Protein backbone atom coordinates (compact mmCIF):
# COMPACT_ATOMS: atom_id res chain seq x y z
CA UNK A 1 0.00 0.00 0.00
CA UNK A 2 1.39 3.36 -0.98
CA UNK A 3 2.01 5.93 1.71
CA UNK A 4 -0.57 8.70 1.59
CA UNK A 5 -0.59 11.88 3.54
CA UNK A 6 -3.40 12.51 6.06
CA UNK A 7 -4.95 15.31 3.99
CA UNK A 8 -5.41 13.00 0.99
CA UNK A 9 -6.98 10.36 3.20
CA UNK A 10 -9.28 12.97 4.76
CA UNK A 11 -10.34 14.21 1.31
CA UNK A 12 -11.05 10.65 0.17
CA UNK A 13 -13.14 9.97 3.29
CA UNK A 14 -15.08 13.22 2.86
CA UNK A 15 -15.75 12.42 -0.78
CA UNK A 16 -16.92 8.89 0.06
CA UNK A 17 -19.15 10.29 2.84
CA UNK A 18 -20.74 12.76 0.43
CA UNK A 19 -21.38 10.05 -2.17
CA UNK A 20 -22.93 7.84 0.50
CA UNK A 21 -25.18 10.69 1.65
CA UNK A 22 -26.41 11.26 -1.90
CA UNK A 23 -27.07 7.53 -2.32
CA UNK A 24 -29.02 7.33 0.95
CA UNK A 25 -31.09 10.39 -0.01
CA UNK A 26 -31.87 8.85 -3.41
CA UNK A 27 -32.93 5.55 -1.84
CA UNK A 28 -35.08 7.34 0.74
CA UNK A 29 -36.86 9.24 -2.02
CA UNK A 30 -37.45 6.06 -4.03
CA UNK A 31 -38.86 4.25 -1.00
CA UNK A 32 -41.17 7.08 0.08
CA UNK A 33 -44.62 5.48 0.53
CA UNK A 34 -46.58 8.48 -0.73
CA UNK A 35 -44.40 8.66 -3.83
CA UNK A 36 -44.88 4.94 -4.45
CA UNK A 37 -48.65 5.34 -4.07
CA UNK A 38 -48.68 8.31 -6.45
CA UNK A 39 -46.64 6.36 -9.01
CA UNK A 40 -48.99 3.35 -8.74
CA UNK A 41 -52.03 5.59 -9.13
CA UNK A 42 -50.56 7.30 -12.19
CA UNK A 43 -49.70 3.92 -13.74
CA UNK A 44 -53.24 2.64 -13.11
CA UNK A 45 -54.76 5.76 -14.68
CA UNK A 46 -52.47 5.43 -17.72
CA UNK A 47 -53.50 1.77 -18.06
CA UNK A 48 -57.24 2.37 -17.71
CA UNK A 49 -57.27 5.26 -20.16
CA UNK A 50 -55.85 3.12 -22.97
CA UNK A 51 -58.57 2.77 -25.61
CA UNK A 52 -58.69 -1.05 -25.56
CA UNK A 53 -58.92 -1.17 -21.78
CA UNK A 54 -61.53 1.59 -21.63
CA UNK A 55 -63.74 -0.23 -24.16
CA UNK A 56 -63.33 -3.51 -22.27
CA UNK A 57 -64.27 -1.87 -18.97
CA UNK A 58 -67.29 -0.24 -20.59
CA UNK A 59 -68.37 -3.65 -21.90
CA UNK A 60 -67.99 -5.27 -18.49
CA UNK A 61 -69.94 -2.41 -16.91
CA UNK A 62 -72.74 -2.75 -19.46
CA UNK A 63 -72.90 -6.51 -18.89
CA UNK A 64 -73.07 -6.01 -15.13
CA UNK A 65 -75.86 -3.46 -15.57
CA UNK A 66 -77.84 -5.84 -17.78
CA UNK A 67 -77.46 -8.66 -15.26
CA UNK A 68 -78.61 -6.43 -12.38
CA UNK A 69 -81.65 -5.22 -14.34
CA UNK A 70 -82.60 -8.81 -15.27
CA UNK A 71 -82.29 -9.94 -11.67
CA UNK A 72 -84.48 -7.06 -10.47
CA UNK A 73 -87.15 -7.87 -13.10
CA UNK A 74 -87.21 -11.56 -12.12
CA UNK A 75 -88.31 -10.71 -8.57
TrEMBL record:
InterPro entries: DUF3618 (IPR022062). It comes from the Bacteria. The chain crosses the membrane at residues 51-69. Pfam families: DUF3618 (PF12277). Keywords: Membrane, Transmembrane, Transmembrane helix. This is DUF3618 domain-containing protein.
